[in-house]
Amino acid sequence: MTHHQFQRRKILTVILFFYHVGVQNVLASISSSLIHSKLTSSNGFFTGPHLDGHGIFNVTTQIGTHAYLPCKVKQLGNKSVSWVRVRDDHILAVDRVKFIADERFQSFYVDQTGFWTLQIKYVQARDAGLYECQISTEPKISARVHLHVVVPRTELVGDPDRYVKAGSTVIIRCIVRGALEPPSYIIWYHGSHQLFTENRHGWRSQIDRGTPDVDGDIHSTIGSLIIESAKKRDSGNYSCSPSNSPPVTVTLHVINGESSASAVTSSASSCMENLSTALTLTLMLMLSVT
Questions:
Q1: Which residues pair with 252 in a beta bridge?
Q2: Tell me: the pLDDT tens digits for 119-171?
C-alpha cells in the first residue's frame, strides 16, 4: 500500500465515523419526535397522557386539619400516577397503593373530576413543602404542588403573673393569631380542672371572633374568662386552650387586704432584724481587729 492509498483510507475512515455519529443524532431526533407525536397530533390536541395545568399549584392548610393535593390527569390509559415527596424523593403512592408507613397519606381518584388527589390527614408542620405528581410516560411527565402549613399561636393579654385584691373583678384574656379559621371553642382550666362557667355563680366566659388587633390581623380571636368578686381560693394557674392552637397559662394571685398588710409588716420586721444582726457582727469584727 502506497502512502497516498493509506492517506485516502484514513480520510475515508474519518468520514464514515462522522457519518455514523450524524445518523445516531438523526435517529435520536426522530425518536424524540415520535415520543412527542404520541402526546400531540398535528392539530395540537393531546392524544396521550397529559396533565391539565402548568407550574406549581399552591395549597394552604392549617396544622391539625386535612390537606388535599390535586393532580388532574387526562387520557391516562395504562400508565400509572405516582406521588413523590420532593425533599427526600420518597415515593408516597403509586396509583392507589401506598409506599409509606405513615397512615396519614392516601392517594385516590375521583372519576367525575379526573383528579388524582393525595390526602394528608392531621397535617403537621413538617409536612410543608413540595410534592410531585408523576405519570409513568417516557419521558416522565410531572407537576408539583407546594403545601403551605399555617401554625396559629396563642398569646396572653397581659402579664403571666397577675396579683389582684380579694373581692375585685378579674378578667383573664388570651388571643389566637394566625389562624385560617377562628377556633370553634376555647376551654378554660383552673389547674387540671375544666371550668364550666354556667355552673359557678359570678363566672363567665366569652369569645370575640374576627376582631382586628394592633398587628392588623383580622382573623384574631380573643377569649376572656371573667371572675367577679375573686376569692383567695381562686388563686392558681389558669389555662386558655383553643381548639386550633396551643394553650397558654397565667398564674393568678388573690391577696386579702389584711393578710397583705401583715405580710408586708412581717417582711419589714424580718428585714430590720437581719440588718441589725449584720451591723452587730460587723462591729464585733472591727473591735476584735483593733
A1: 162, 236
A2: 999 999 999 999 999 888 878 888 899 999 999 999 999 999 999 999 999 99
Contact present, 35 and 96 (Cβ < 8 Å):
no
Let me know the angle formed at the C-alpha of 182 by 206 and 156, rounded to the nearest 5 degrees: 60
> What residues are paired with 106 via a beta bridge?
119
- Identify each DSSP E strand in 63-126 by its residue range: 67-74, 81-85, 90-94, 97-98, 105-110, 115-120
Contacts of 210 (CB under 8 A, 6+ apart): 182, 218, 219, 220, 221
3-class DSSP state for residue 248? strand
Are residues 211 and 220 in contact, defined by beta-carbon separation less than 8 angstroms? yes
**CB atoms closer than 10 angstroms to residue 73:** 19
Q: Residue 218 carries which side chain, given as an amino acid letter?
A: I
Cα 6 to Cα 10, 14, 16, 20, 159, distances in angstroms: 6, 13, 15, 21, 98
Which residues, at least 6 apart from 54, have a Cβ–Cβ distance to it below 8 Å?
A: 143
How many CB atoms are closer than 10 A to CB 199? 7
For 170-179, how does the pLDDT look when each residue is reduced to its tens digit (9 = 90+)? 999 999 998 8
pTM over 0.70: no
**Can the peptide bond before residue 139 be classed as cis, meaning omega within 30 degrees of 0?**
yes
Residue 236 phi, psi dihedral angles, 5° rounding: 135, -170
Is residue 156 within 8 Å of 248, Cβ to Cβ?
yes
Residue closest to 118 by CA, chosen among 166, 62, 70: 70
Q: Are strands 81-85 and 67-74 parallel, antiparallel or unpaired?
A: unpaired
